[in-house]
Design a protein that fits this description.
Elements: H1 3-13, E1 23-25, H2 27-32, H3 38-46, E2 52-54, E3 57-61, H4 62-71, H5 77-82, H6 86-93, E4 98-106, E5 119-120, H7 123-126, E6 131-132, E7 138-145, H8 156-162, E8 169-170, H9 181-187, E9 189-190, H10 192-205, E10 210-217, E11 224-233, E12 236-239, H11 242-250, E13 269-273, E14 281-282, E15 285-286, E16 289-296
Length: 313
């Protein structure tokens, strides 16, 4: 057991102030959902891992457990899904044509049986060219990646800015810290939104025209809602995601030499807006959605198998 690794994880977790924790995960959830076995948990507790005791039971914060599971590469649903994310990045870097068909299906609110669902697509989603059914409950987006969009990498001046996030550790943050640039400055912990805010701000400081983007990262079997930075190059908004690529390398699901963290990634994303909006509305409220995605065979590619894991950034 690598005590130095576990101490580093514990130290990073404890950088999140305690008032943002909800201690509602019991011992059974630690193993069942996050894959953290008893010897590892015991070692973490000896190193000061946050927890609370009540009625003779120990309770933990869900985000602390999720971040620990990711850092240890344990088979949680989130980590298993992340192992598929590099597929689309490699297709772009290798200029290899792959088609993704993304089926977005809204769910009726089962907790309110008397509720009559009234699905609507926001204008930003309609602008993507979504093919919706008559109820707007289901719509499909298709994208061929690997041979479309602006090729190449960021210019050297931008790559120097991207290098500033190489020391950031991906960390799933509580809502109270979303977008808090002072937190990342103090801790070097950032989720996708916080890293995007940092990179966009730095690019603007250096004279670039840059914007934050919210939308969908294509992946099979499930795509995910995501944030990434875009910079206008030669009059074209151009997508990058150095923090995601750095994180995938750190999680050992992407080899460092396979995809540059300066790779242009326009075809990897469906941009929806500058900031989060619901993909489908139900009577004016956010509807829960499934983002089932199929990777289609093109140009002699082998058909990829689909799994059942789902995750979000």
């Amino acid at each position: 057991m690598n005590t130095e690794l576990l101490q580093g994880i514990t130290d990073r977790v404890r950088l999140v102030p305690d008032q943002h924790r909800v201690f509602d995960q019991d011992i059974s959830m630690v193993l069942k959902v996050f894959g953290i076995r008893a010897p590892i948990l015991s070692a973490l507790l000896d190193l000061g891992f946050p927890h609370r005791s009540s009625g003779g039971q120990q309770y933990f914060d869900e985000l602390d457990l999720a971040n620990t599971s990711l850092a240890l590469h344990l088979p949680s649903p989130r980590y298993l899904a992340m192992r598929r994310w590099p597929d689309v990045l490699r297709a772009v870097a290798e200029n290899r044509a792959v088609r993704y068909d993304l089926e977005i299906v809204a769910e009726c609110d089962s907790a309110a049986p008397a509720h009559q669902c009234d699905f609507r697509l926001p204008a930003e989603v309609q602008a993507l060219g979504a093919r919706a059914d008559s109820t707007a409950r289901k719509f499909i987006l298709s994208r061929e990646v690997g041979t479309s969009g602006r090729p190449g990498e960021a210019p050297p001046q931008l790559q120097r800015i991207f290098g500033e996030v190489s020391g950031f550790h991906f960390h799933i943050l509580p809502k109270a810290l979303y977008g808090d640039l002072s937190f990342v400055a103090a801790t070097s912990l950032a989720d996708c939104e916080l890293a995007t805010r940092y990179l966009v701000g730095r690019a603007i400081e250096e004279g670039w025209e840059a914007r934050r983007s919210f939308g969908l990262l294509l992946s099979s079997p499930y795509s995910l809602e995501h944030y990434w930075p875009e910079v206008r190059l030669d009059g074209v908004w151009t997508a990058f995601d150095p923090h995601l690529i750095n994180s995938l390398v750190r999680w050992e699901v992407l080899a460092a030499a396979q995809v540059s963290n300066a790779q242009v990634l326009n075809s990897v994303f469906f941009r929806v807006a500058d900031d989060w909006i619901p993909l489908v509305e139900d009577a004016g409220r956010q509807a829960r959605v499934s983002l089932l995605t199929r990777r289609r065979q093109l140009a002699g590619e082998s058909v990829s198998a689909t799994g059942s894991a789902e995750a979000a950034s």
